[in-house]
Amino acid sequence: MSSKISRLCEAIIEAGWLAALIIVPVFFNVYSSRVFEPDKISLLRSIALVMIGAWLIKLIDGGGAAAPLPASATQTPRGNLWRQIRETPLIIPALLLVSAYLISTALSVAPRISFWGSYQRMQGTYSTFSYIVIFFLTLTHLRSRVQLNRLLHAIVIASLPVALYGILQHYSLDPLPWGGDVKLRVAGNMGNAIFIAAYLIIAFFVTLERFLRSAGRLLAEQGGEIADALLVGSYVFVLVVQSVAIIFSQSRGPWLGWFAGIYIFVLLGLIALRSRATRRGAGFFHWAWLGWIGLAVAGVAFLISFNLPNSPLAALRSVPYVGRLGQIFETEEGTGKVRVLIWEGASQMILPHAAITYPDGTPDPLNALRPIFGYGPEAMWVAYNPFYPPDLAHYEARNASPDRSHNETFDALIITGAWGFIAYVVLFGSIFYWTLRWLGWVRNRQDAILFLALTLLGGLGGALIPWLALGDLRYLGVAIPAGLILGFIVYLTISAFRSDFTLADDRQPGAPAARHPLGHRRALCRNPLRHRHRRHAHLLLDVDRRPARHRPGLARPFGRGTGRGDVCGGRHAVVLQHAFSVCGAHAHGRDPA
User: Model pTM greater than 0.85?
Assistant: First the structure.
């Protein structure tokens, strides 16, 4: 029985992750020098410290490191600590990422900056560990359906003012005089058009899940309540506002992620309808999924032809909004040219090279280790100058040195080296794998091997094809994640063609339930559209770092995973980490203000 102090500390911890979800995305300070990024980071760091303080007080009070499971959950022996760590999905990949940051910080060319973060961004190891601390505290203290609903509602609520502010900017109703153009491409509370779109596509799918759940209750045979009707209307309004703001951002990368997320979301729903239609003899829904795949293939073909030189669709590139989709492969002008030039230098940094020189003339003594462990967080701008392409000075200020490569893969390789990149890929690969396993899309060893083979072949092909075609590694950072995601989507599509394939919650009555990897039955929701993790995979497609950064547990199940019948067993924990990392998103672009 926990004491009042322990329960108070648990309440403070929950208030911390809710505050991070609601306040951090909305907050910015026009009276500071940078307005957005350092202010959001400082706020998030402070929230993490308060949560740690509450956890320590709870620990001293004897409340335990984790919140107790609900009384309805049948608990099983937890075993030793190593067994819990080994058997809890995503914990080991998260710890690998922690080790990569610790090593790269210790070996950094600028250790103090790597730990605390630069003055402009504050995205050092301290900030990364703040994200991870909130992840672990959420992992160990989110235990009930009520808590889960509060978390999801917080994401939806926080996204509304962000989206509305972006729409106000588009119609020139913003009272603040920003230095950049926030009408053509809105920036909202994030300070960058890419960041607001990346944040909103995450909130969009959470809102869509809430809408479907409320609509399901409203359309149930026993009839819904007035509150359900009001919720459905509210969610529709929020979805429309989010969609309009995403479109007004005119950010190509988030748009692609949005489209990919919608494809997978709808595919899951149609697969569920296929299973039920087979039992009820409804022919249309039995084949609707196939038409959806065909429509997706046609959409991909359109995008490719739209971006080819001398395309017959070239006239559409002058059409507002639609024309942005015809500039995906733009590399000879604008921001595309700048990024390619930065990637040219970044590709040289990650390969063996002559030692860089410190200001006092001393060569870097750890040069041989740089490809393995990197230069350290926030240290790219310190080490980049020897690799600066001269042509870049024609597109950016001559005295400016890039502090980010505008690419997640290159950033991981530069700041944490090959070790950190491997940890990063293992982390995201684990998220996708466990998501599919909990959904029933990976049912046996053969499925796991096929999933692993397709994703690895996709990533390997993405790395080799540009290198063989162009002879350099400039596009390595885009090609690898694109290949990994392509392999992931191909696996999902292949799974949909299986005649015996059903989602986890659509088995015939009496069929054995899928078991959680820790041994307890999953308490999955009735509507398979609730499962949102895979929609967030699209964040890797964009060449800029998204708010998918620094979240070691999108798909972690709530609870310790030791009880049978856990109220949130098998659920996707730490979806909130997406919103926490709105700060992290700012680390990889330039504010328009």
Answer: no
